[in-house]
Amino acid sequence: MKIKGFMPLLLVFLLVLSACTVQTKDDVSNKVNDGEKKEAFEIEILSTSANESDVNILRDQLTKNGFEVKLNLQPDFGSFKAQEDAGNFDVSMSSWTTVTGNPDYAVRSLFITGGDYSIISDPKLDKLINKASTQTPEEYKGTYKELEDHLVFEKAYIAPLYISNKNQAVNTDILKEKSVRLSKSRALAWDSIDFADTTKRDKEPLKLTQSMSTLTSLDPIKGNDGSINQLNTNMYIRLVNLTDDDKITSDASLSLNHAIAEGNTEYYFVLRNDIRFAKVENKKAVDSGERVGAEDVIFSLNRAKDKDSVPDHRTYSLHEHIKKVEIVEDVASLESVKLSNEKGTVKDALNKDLESEITGLVKAKEDADQKNGKYQVVKMTTTEPFPQVLNYLAHQSAGIVSKKQVESINTYDVASFDVKKDIPYGDQSTVTEGSQYNNTLYTSGPYIMLYKNDYEAVFQKNPAYMEGGEYEPYINRVSVRFIKDPDSAFSALRSSEIDMLSGVPETKFDILKEDSKMKLQSIQSNAVSYLLFNTKNRDVAQSENLRKAVLYSINQDEFIQFYKGDKAKAISTVSPLVDTGNELSPDAGKVKKALEAYRSEK
After folding, report:
1. Can you give the residue range of the structural domain that contains 69?
2. Backbone CA torsion sign across 291, 293, 298, 304
3. Which end of the chain has a smaller Cβ tally under 10 Å, C or N?
4. Rounded CA gap, 61 and 59, in Å?
């Protein structure tokens, strides 16, 4: 027993030791193997200790192909990022999740010159990324294949590892399993969830969890992270939504229908008029009496695209393709515009399956009456042909806020904003119990936050959200418990302290399978793990051959086998979204050839 316990401890000690060694320069070293002196190519892997299993698999694969592997394991993401920013790596264990469901988001920030997260500058990549963004799904498959060919096989800027699954566990003694959605991109939708015992809808809260208790902002444009994505998604309605498999839909959105005009620069939305903003009084959700309408859409999207509309705007780059948003008042103009797919007019598309066809358009939201054919229609124009703009409109950052309410709260000057005295709309201090509590939220979605503390955030159903319709929420209250430790969250699930758990690790699958009240749901996600090569001050920055030797050392089957099939093969961050037909296979011959070519460069 002592010997079995000693070996893992020794391994951890060695890994920690290697994590303390930071390389500043690559060199070629020699080692002895079976009595022969062989040239070994040193490669340094940067990762966090949480990815230790992946690192060990990768190290074995590289070692078999002639590399001497050094590990730079960091204890947390902050330390990892500091090392990455300092360039202390040859290859960095990276990952990316496309939360908007469109391939442009999967590549633009990562690989275009000057992108938010890009360390690559390649004119051909820039051209392909911009070309694909102007194309429809039918057209861009070939462009993204060409992009992958260049990114992975020609230049080896990255080396793919795998696509992850998205997993969640549901307590079926408490919830109806089929009512709980599992979407590739969209955050968990609360409005469709129902109790197995429907008499509990008004008596008990839906109990969920998330790890982060400090919330970036409840103003949807001021954050794009795990602390608020799920919360804001359920508090603010959008012009369109994503289906569970990332298709654009008007279902459960503010638009009854939407249409793309010929040329792919004009987008039309016919709005529903059965939603009013919720507000909070005495820690209860009440109907504000203010209808959600076109003027709120225009206000919300204009501030979403304007980086100077609020201090610390974190999502404007998602909406930079929006040029103009306006109200359409002339019905005849809808009849004269052809659809992008050339199968009718914009009016035909907007009229599809409406309760009453469009007979008149109104400017004031109070005048809309969809039962009698009077609607509001919003037209959005983009800076260039960009069909993928709809995916960004489905993101939580495009949530519709109240123009009247936000303008009444955000009276400060953006340029001279003082974080010590100015309290903007959505600031978490306004919903946190205590002396500063002053809930000024106006939400257009199915729920509104009543308050939060260190233990939980409590939400209540919007009483004026699609009343009596198919998308009206079932459960009256939601409690999001803040549980930082994953093991504690899993224990809370099993003891029925929470009703479901997202992000269940593979190590817990067997336990769930033995629990009769638990159901594990799984779907391929848009999360891709890959190796990012350093582009400065390392040999891998100058040598395509050295990068290709690493690329063809990777055997994705070994990762999939380790994770018991809970991963899938990838080529790039586009892989979960577009099937380009590309494949990566390990090839010792190509590794040998690439290393020989690298030697000749020295």
Report:
1. 2-164+525-601
2. positive
3. N
4. 5
Question: Residues 416-456: pLDDT tens digits?
Answer: 999 999 999 999 999 999 999 999 999 999 999 999 999 99
- The terminus-to-terminus CA distance of the chain in angstroms comes to 50
Which pairs from 593-600 meet CB under 8 Å and 24+ separation? 594/545, 594/546, 594/548, 594/549, 594/552, 595/41, 595/66, 595/545, 595/546, 595/549, 597/545, 598/41, 598/539, 598/543, 598/545, 598/546, 598/549, 599/39
- 286 with 357, same domain: the answer is yes
Rounded to 5 degrees, what are φ and ψ at 601? -80, -20
Asked if residue 530 and residue 493 are part of one domain, the reply reads no
CA distance 168 to 521: 5
Rg (CA), the chain: 26
CA distance 424 to 312: 11
User: Of 497, 517, 541, which residue sits at a domain end?
Assistant: 497
Q: For residue 476, count other CB atoms closer than 10 A to its CB.
A: 18
Q: What is the per-residue DSSP string for 440-494?
A: ---B-SSEEEEEE-SSEEEEEE-TTBSTTSTTS-S-SEEEEEE--SHHHHHHHHH
Q: Is 379 helix (H, G, I), strand (E, B) or coil?
A: strand
Length of the chain: 602
Per residue in 345-404, pLDDT tens?
A: 999 999 999 999 999 999 999 999 999 999 999 999 999 999 899 999 999 999 999 999
Name which of 258, 263, 264 is nearest 242 in CA terms: 258
Find, among 67, 84, 57, 70, the residue nearest to 19 by Cα.
70
Given a contact cutoff of 8 angstroms between Cβ atoms, the answer to whether 451 and 433 are in contact is yes
Grade residue 38 by pLDDT with cuts at 50, 70 and 90. Answer: low
288 touches 390 (CB < 8 A): no
Torsion of CA 570, 574, 577, 582, to 10 degrees: -50
Those residues whose C-beta lies under 8 Å from the C-beta of residue 199, and which sit 6 or more positions away, are none
CA 593/CA 597 separation, integer angstroms: 6
d(CA 550, CA 67): 9
Cα separation, 330 vs 332, whole angstroms: 5
**How large is the greatest C-alpha to C-alpha distance in the chain, in angstroms?**
89
Alpha-carbon distance of 439 to 459, in angstroms, equals 12
Cα 278 from Cα 578, distance rounded (Å): 39
Tell me the backbone φ, ψ of residue 150, rounded to 5 degrees. Answer: -75, -45
pLDDT recorded at residue 225: 87
Domain count for the chain: 2
**Do the Cβ atoms of 49 and 73 come closer than 8 Å?**
yes
Residue 333 lies in a domain: yes
